[in-house]
Amino acid sequence: MEKHVFLKEIVAFLKDELIDVYGDPQSIIVKHLRDPEHVDEFTLDWINPGKPEKQKIAETSKAKAIVVDKDVVFSEVLRNQGKVLLVATNPKLAIAKAGNEFFVEKVTPGIHPTAVIHPDAQIGKNVYIGPNAIIEKCVIGDDSIIDANVHIYSSVIMGKHCTVKSGAVLGGMGFGFEKDESGNLFRFPQIGNLFIGEYVEIGANTCIDRGALSDTVIGDYCKINNLCHIAHNNKIGMNVVITAQVNISGSNVIEDDVWIAPNATIRGWIRIGKSATIGMGAVVTKDIPAGETWVGNPARKLEK
Amino acid sequence: MEKHVFLKEIVAFLKDELIDVYGDPQSIIVKHLRDPEHVDEFTLDWINPGKPEKQKIAETSKAKAIVVDKDVVFSEVLRNQGKVLLVATNPKLAIAKAGNEFFVEKVTPGIHPTAVIHPDAQIGKNVYIGPNAIIEKCVIGDDSIIDANVHIYSSVIMGKHCTVKSGAVLGGMGFGFEKDESGNLFRFPQIGNLFIGEYVEIGANTCIDRGALSDTVIGDYCKINNLCHIAHNNKIGMNVVITAQVNISGSNVIEDDVWIAPNATIRGWIRIGKSATIGMGAVVTKDIPAGETWVGNPARKLEK
Amino acid sequence: MEKHVFLKEIVAFLKDELIDVYGDPQSIIVKHLRDPEHVDEFTLDWINPGKPEKQKIAETSKAKAIVVDKDVVFSEVLRNQGKVLLVATNPKLAIAKAGNEFFVEKVTPGIHPTAVIHPDAQIGKNVYIGPNAIIEKCVIGDDSIIDANVHIYSSVIMGKHCTVKSGAVLGGMGFGFEKDESGNLFRFPQIGNLFIGEYVEIGANTCIDRGALSDTVIGDYCKINNLCHIAHNNKIGMNVVITAQVNISGSNVIEDDVWIAPNATIRGWIRIGKSATIGMGAVVTKDIPAGETWVGNPARKLEK
Predict the structure, then answer these.
(1) Best residue in B169, B232, B235, B280 to probe C by mutation, most C CBs within 10 Å?
(2) A1: pLDDT strictly greater than 90
(3) Which fold has domain C5-102?
(4) I need a surface site. Which of A60, B36, B246, B295 has the fewest CB within 10 A?
(5) Gap from C226 CA to chain B (nearest CA, Å)
(6) Where in chain C is CATH 3.40.1390.10?
(7) Among partner residues B131, B226, B243, which is closest to A116 by beta-carbon distance?
(8) Cα separation, C127 vs C163, whole angstroms
(9) CA dihedral sign of residues B153, B156, B159, B164
(10) SS3 annotation, chain A
(11) pTM, full prediction
(12) Is A151 a catalytic site residue?
């Protein structure tokens, strides 16, 4: 399973990320990425710009090739060690791009024979659909990955380059009831759609409901982790990060670049402003203005 | 997919809900239900009784047919617009009933060929069982809908008219352990049943465990949303609303008409009195008397 | 389904658990375990050592055979009732062992024909794999039970005697992103393994992610309940109890014998010391020293 990649290939691939390359990548082979404790001579190492003593980390790393920011200089020590420095604007992004290109097993497009696909489903090009996935008469964009056991209802219109992890349930009926004459709960119709943008990622066993009379909308580049619940009629902007087990009740507006920490709960019918941050386990009962951070139960603005 | 329904059919269907009908429904065609922002001339519109300025909403609606309560009068304006008012005791219930009858795709009973069904399972009439559902030697009442990937263990006895959404796991072993002589955790037997009443709805990826030595019981008309956990031995009454990601530890008694908001957590061995309300993200550690509202972590009575 | 077991068989099976047996087990038949309210003459009853008035409970039990601790004496009353006392060091453990041996339906090893198994998966002896389970090129130890709809990725190395309940997703990609030049979120590689020890139990619809560059590790005898999320790179010790809907962010160290109550949330990059207890719904943002109990949002040490 281990790869053998010439460092020069990686350098070529990363050319838009790199400001400078010091040392000679010619004969260096890279076999893997590793966490700091397990770095060896075949690791493509990297140093997070936020760390203290980056120069020392570079000089003591066992790796031959290290992605760094421009604070790390190609010292005499590094030169004598025969190391290669790949100086990047954003080392974490550079290592992410190289890692995905060279060291992550690619998913091969195709539809697993056990998947249950509606004959009128509109499935784009280069889509992967995993074992036992259930795809109703929906739309799935090109280059998307639908993992095992996912259920996508006919209400779903999903863009390109999306990833849906195992067991997610997309576009099911929302939760709305009205008491009838006998005082028993009676279902309110749930007939809206669920629109999902491009480059959206949806975690394992996460549930996103279709709209009731309106639609549910998830913007481009949203990243949603495992076991989240997103109720009907939510309008969620772009690049919103929804971490694990977040619970979003119905009919909210969540603007671009909001970050929602694990297990936060958001009531319905509110607005979360652009780039707001919601803390771990926060219970949000009010609108949150753009850019603010709210934490606690009930959630309040974090001052400072 | 769009329907064409004569308004007079809807009026006839709703006859028990309607107090009065003003205007002439004869030639009006309804194609859909829509949220207020998207109402058009083919919408069966409705006005929530709690809204301000209901008369004005009716007079500015683009719809020809509007379900209202008796506060809205059939004014000169409405008459001249050629509108029809359907005056209902409960407009939301009326629109829900009409919506389900005319605008919601019905599930056709039948067992999907990929479902795995125990030969001795007792499955009622007009039951739908979706793709890849796993039905052990349990009892499922008439007119129930079991969606894709649901797993129902042999411990389950479920009544009529239930809906179980995708990925729910019903009647599995509860979580009980005792330390053995070596200090290692050892499973306590879980051999009780899970009784589910009639008209119960269970959300996607929700897990309800069978009893340990006793049984778990879910009363008629309970509505349980996605990603909930209900542990062994709970006795839950009728018309209890359990919203998304609620966590109910074992051996509680939850009386009729309790309402539990999203992501609330309830410890074991307590009693929640009739019609109590538990707030969003509340952490309930004590008995709650009937009719009270408790919120917070730990939950306390909400005064006022 | 009801069993007929001779009490003398149970006594023989429990010989290492029992200090004494009073009365004559010879002719007594046991058919089931039951909760206190439903005990009858065919029940193997037991009395929790923590209960008050244990002697009275024994003398009023309808059961012929009762597992007790040594505080309960074989009184004249018990003798005249023809009862048998099984005196155990730990009555709950004794009843658990007897219950599992005689009254719990055993799972028969075997691979269900609908399971999707990678040809190079390493599956041990006496393993059960349920319907629609998806087993990639992973390692599963002997005597393990993998229930329906479980998805185990190739990153997983699992020990012996594990139980994985329905719908769990093990070894999927973790949740890590970096903003790219356009400000859009871009996936960080997730290429570590997920190591699971022996006698581990994993609840229904629980998700445990593989490591990013490091590994995720779950120690022996850990018991994890339904709907939990365990992120990448966590190192979890032995006999850790993780109850339902617990949320553990990435890269923590959780030492042996920690107990985490339902719906608690733990941020990333912290250490929870040995035998610490985390309360229901607690939001843990800091290291917790060994043996301490922390509760609340944010979690604080519980004094007293």
Answers:
(1) B169
(2) no
(3) 3.40.1390
(4) A60
(5) 7
(6) 5-102
(7) B131
(8) 10
(9) negative
(10) CCCCEEHHHHHHHCCCCEEEEECCCCCCEECECCCHHHCCCCEEEECCCCCCCHHHHHHHCCCCEEEECCCCCCCHHHHHCCCEEEEECCHHHHHHHHHHHHCCCCCCCEECCCCEECCCCEECCCCEECCCCEECCCEECCCCEECCCCEECCCEEECCCCEECCCCEEEECCCCEEECCCCCEEECCCCCCEEECCCCEECCCCEEECCCCCCEEECCCCEECCCCEECCCCEECCCCEECCCCEECCCCEECCCCEECCCCEECCCCEECCCCEECCCCEECCCECCCCEEECCCCEECCC
(11) 0.96
(12) no
Residue C1: predicted pLDDT: 55
Give the closest-approach CA distance of B256 to chain C in angstroms: 22
Judge whether B223 is closer than 8 Å to chain A, CB to CB: yes
Residues C77-102 pLDDT 10s: 999 999 999 999 999 999 999 999 99
Which helix (H) or strand (E) segment is C253 a member of?
Answer: strand C253-254
Angle at B74 between CA B69 and CA B79, to 5 degrees: 140
Structure tokens at B81: 């617009």
Question: What span, in angstroms and rounded, lies between the C-alpha atoms of B301 and A95?
Answer: 52
Q: What is the spatial distance between Cα C179 and Cα A28, in angstroms, rounded to a whole number?
A: 29
Residue in chain C nearest A115 by alpha carbon: C132
C-beta neighbour count of C289 within 10 angstroms: 13
Q: How far apart are the first and last CA of chain B?
A: 49
CATH 2.160.10.10 residue window(s) in chain A: 110-251
Partner-chain residue, chosen from C147, C220, C280, that has the shortest CB–CB distance to B285: C280
Query: ipTM greater than 0.90, yes or no?
Result: yes
Buried b (16+ CB within 10 A) or exposed e, B40-50: eebbbbbbebe
Please count the residue pairs, one from chain B and one from chain C, whose beta carbons lie less than 8 angstroms apart: 146
**pLDDT for the residue B205:** 98
Q: Pick from C203, C205, C239: which is nearest to B175 by CB?
A: C203
Which residues from chain B sit within 8 angstroms of residue A175, using beta carbons?
Answer: 203, 223, 225-226, 243-244
| The pair of three-digit structure tokens given for residue B175, joined into one six-digit string | 């979580």
Query: Two tokens at B281?
Result: 């993200």
B229 to chain C: which residues are within 8 Å by CB?
A: 225-227, 244-245, 262
CA-to-CA distance for C4 and B286, rounded, in angstroms? 41
B5-6/C163-164 β-pairing: unpaired
CA distance C64 to C85: 9
User: Which residues are registered as beta bridge partners of A145?
Assistant: A128, A163
CB count, 10 Å around CB of A125?
Answer: 10
Residue keyed to tokens 């004959």? A119
Nearest chain C CA: its distance from A215 CA (Å): 24
What local confidence, expressed as pLDDT, does residue C80 receive? 97
C162 vs B contacts (CB less than 8 Å): none
Structure tokens at B270: 């307590």
Instruction: Say whether residue B148 is in contact with chain C using an 8 A CB cutoff.
Output: no
Catalytic residue IDs of B? 232
